[in-house]
Amino acid sequence: MSPDPLLNSGKPSEPQSWNRYSYVSNNPLSRIDPTGMYDFRACASGDNSCAAEQTRFNNAVKKANELLETMNPNSDKAKALSKALGAVGLAGDGNGVTVGFGPTVTGAPMKASGRTITVDFTKYDSAIAMVNGGDGYHGITSAHTDPVVDLAGKVVHEGTHVAGGGEREAYTAQSWTSKAGKSFDTSGVWNPSWAKGPDAEKLRERGIRDGVERSTMYTNMVINREKKPWKRFLLL
After folding, report:
1. pLDDT tens sequence across 38-47
2. Under a CB-based contact definition with an 8 Å cutoff, are residues 76 and 83 in contact?
3. Domain spans of the chain, in order of start
């Protein structure tokens, strides 16, 4: 009975999105949209962890917006984050972006495919534990990650893809998010210790480059797996 709170949620390619009283793309059986922003895939019956995962994702989006507010609104950083978060929902996009939970096609903790974002919290929590446990993740033996900030960076990363940006643009925006949150990034694109030396930007650029190379490698693996199903056991 209430309209979508986003005044600019309409998209020319989706006529139904112009109706601000039309939630979840008119698909209430498989989606929920309590806020009128992005949609969550409906939780399975008896899945108590699903609601907690939704809360974690919401908190990450909130944190990303809080970090955005700390930046100069006219800076490239702020513009990149604003664009990404707008695509996710809170900064300017309405219904149509769907968020779900479970394994991703590439094995990454979070992955956008078109306008669907999938989050694998099992894989994500494993990465956090390796970093904060000092297991040498990305060659780092002493680091600390704020899980909410790190997840916010990944939301910004995938939001960049939803908005049409490539891997380099996505990792760059992710690095700015983690830098603003003063947290080690589990993708290796920012380490707070870099800020103490003169080579912070060189190290950040190297982290971004390495991230792009890893993503390209994993994407190619998935493509090859789909082309040659008999190789799946070798690739998985």
Report:
1. 778 777 666 7
2. no
3. 39-235
